[in-house]
Amino acid sequence: EMEIGAAVEEGIIDNQTLGYFIARTSIFADKIGLKKEHVRFRQHRDKEMAHYAKDCWDLEVETSYGWIECAGLADRSAYDLSNHSKASKNELVAREVFDEVRTVEILVAEPNKGLLGRQFKKEAQIIMEHLAEMSESDKESLQAALAAGSAKLSPCNGKEYEIQSNMVDFKRKVEKVSGESYYPSVIEPSFGVGRLLYCLFEHSFYCRGEGSSEGDRNVLGLPSTMAPVKCVVLPLRKNAQYDKIVGLVGSALSSNGLINRIDDSGASIGKRYARADELGTPFGITVDIQSLDDQTVTLRERDSMEQVRGPWQEIVDAVGAISNGKETWADVCSRLPRFVETEE
Q: How far apart, in whole angstroms, are the C-alpha atoms of residue 66 and residue 85?
């Protein structure tokens, strides 16, 4: 394991921008509910790297099927615009104009056309164009490599060429420049939504142990931010006297953009909780006999099975705050009184 910043500094990840996208993807995987111990980023080997990519990393998630590729993060560099420029004969570059003329020292890589032509024939032109397009840092790296004897070049045609030190001469020269032109580079993130959803379902599913108060039951533990149905509204029993408050709670949830459903079937409250748990619904609001007296209801959290009690408007706000990532269940428990159920 290694931090993104260290991987960029050591050259394992090609550049800061690609590192940023890898870090954001890691945060995304954590927030949607994938288990960190079953998530990794794998760098493409040279033989599997796409011809347009300068560096590429895959987000892989471990499931019962093994490691599954769920996202690809490719640094396309300036492959697209540079090739469009060559084909169209138009310079598709961005230009930064300096406030005043600058005097700069640049490194020039001058190809030995004769040696390159004899060695690589028609492909020598590709190598010379690649040398002309290299950045200052890339030319410095090439110079250092050739000082040791030879170096490998990888132009954007998918091939690799090994050149010798006598095929390129390096010179320093001073120029006055008023600006700088460059091809904007591109990072291409590609996510497999179906794969991510499957992995999330597998990582979220668990079974309550026989030692729990609810017995052996299946639970889909989707994070509240990801669960499509945020809350189930339950009258304690099927009785018309609860209908008004149940309707008010359901309407308030909907007005706050929280998808909910009302389960007023004749099953016991415990069975209805279990049904909602198996569907991944993170919260349950129960209207009981006390609700008729003081307009309070109970709020049950799926994974801990803990409950709190409060005015139904405040309970609706709590569901919204947790579902939007503004509060945690612990925050709600710290400001609302706990409720111990006597019948489930």
A: 43
